[in-house]
Specification:
The protein is mostly helical. It is built from 16 helices and no strands. The protein has one domain. The protein has helices at about 1-15, 20-25, 35-40, 45-60, 65-80, 85-95, 110-130, 135-145, 160-175, 180-195, 210-215, 220-225, 245, 275-290, 295-300, 315-330. Helix 14 runs antiparallel to helix 15 (about 295-300). Pfam families: FA_hydroxylase (PF04116). It is a multi-pass membrane protein.
Length: about 325
């Protein structure tokens, strides 16, 4: 019975209905009007969409079973290995850096807008480094390994990525005056929308969302981000507001003439958990071991993926620049 109880708790936890069930059991239905109550109704949306996406895929015989299988294994693995590390890092950063904040915000609508823009800056920094520093790419590549896009990709993360990401995002926000109350509200909104932008074509074929595609980041933008096409590589690092992509010139819209190819450029078995989860770590270890001299070994850790001590670089910047030069005349 204890095993069944654990399994049931894991299922309700995955579906995001634990908090809503507790409110229903208490009989205090007015609690649904509070922040926690509203959040409890929002949490289940993404898991339910994921299940709907899978069912629609089965109906139309486009289930991407390989992707769902590996991402499910990653979810289970991460539940056991890195369950509490990220929130511990958030708490630690708040405690350490609060006294060094340049100024303090308050819980008003205009400071909320400011805080969200600052959060997006922190997200951009973490995400950009995750693509431009080989060691951080080892943490982030698991998320890019799936060769198709669906909501299960939301759960495809190396267990150390969330602590690394939240350390950077929280530190940037706290130092720039974002109050913890605003920070946690933004993290909830960002986490929910950040999951939604992984929605697959089984549910939404064209995810540009009309005029919204010009003023915010849509699932179409994030599909571009997950593409390995030369035109799309290392673009669209933001999550909801694409302000910083436009500022730092990493913004790229989905082109109808360039069909998205998902995955990473390294040859890999996307149906193999070990290759998806640890493949880039293994590849980095091999490169470091084979590199001549300590300086080259160190460079493999901090230089972008595709950098080579031989000078035959195949970084995203090199590949994309060559594509733009040859195909578009830029």
């Amino acid at each position: 019975m204890e095993i069944l109880s654990i399994v049931l708790n894991e299922i309700t936890g995955f579906l995001g209905i634990t908090q809503a069930l507790e409110i229903l059991k208490s009989g205090d239905y007015a609690a649904f009007k509070t922040y926690d109550g509203i959040a409890s109704l929002i949490y289940p949306i993404i898991p339910l969409l994921l299940l709907l996406e899978l069912v629609v895929g089965l109906v139309y015989k486009k289930p991407q079973i390989k992707v769902y299988k590996v991402n499910f294994l990653i979810y289970i693995f991460n539940r056991f290995v890195g369950r509490f590390i990220a929130i511990a890092m958030v708490t630690f950063c708040i405690g350490v850096f609060s006294s060094y904040a340049l100024f303090k915000t308050s819980n008003t609508w205009y400071w909320f807008i400011y805080a969200y823009i600052v959060w997006e800056l922190g997200h951009f920094v973490y995400h950009y480094l995750g693509h431009k520093v080989r060691l951080f790419w080892c943490l982030h590549s698991t998320h890019h390994a799936p060769e198709d896009m669906n909501l299960s990709v939301t759960h495809a993360h190396f267990f150390l990525e969330a602590p690394y990401a939240d350390t950077i995002r929280t530190t940037v926000c706290i130092l720039l005056g974002v109050q913890p109350e605003l920070l946690f509200t933004i993290m909830f909104i960002d986490g929910t929308y950040g999951a939604f932008i992984h929605i697959g074509e089984n549910l939404i074929k064209d995810a540009r969302f009309g005029f919204l595609n010009k003023i915010m980041l849509t699932p179409s933008h994030h599909r571009v981000h997950h593409a390995r096409n030369p035109l799309y590589m290392d673009t669209n690092f933001c999550n909801l507001l694409n302000i910083w992509d436009k500022v730092f010139k990493t913004y790229q819209e989905e082109e109808k003439s360039v069909q998205i190819e998902y995955g990473i450029t390294r040859e890999m078995d996307s149906g193999n958990f070990i290759d998806v989860y640890f493949g880039e770590v293994i590849a980095l270890v091999k490169d470091v071991a084979n590199a001549p001299g300590l300086i080259n070994k160190f460079r493999y850790l901090i230089m972008p993926p595709g950098w080579s001590h031989t000078g035959d670089h195949k970084t995203a910047k090199v590949v994309r620049s060559a594509y733009l030069k040859n195909s578009l005349g830029i």
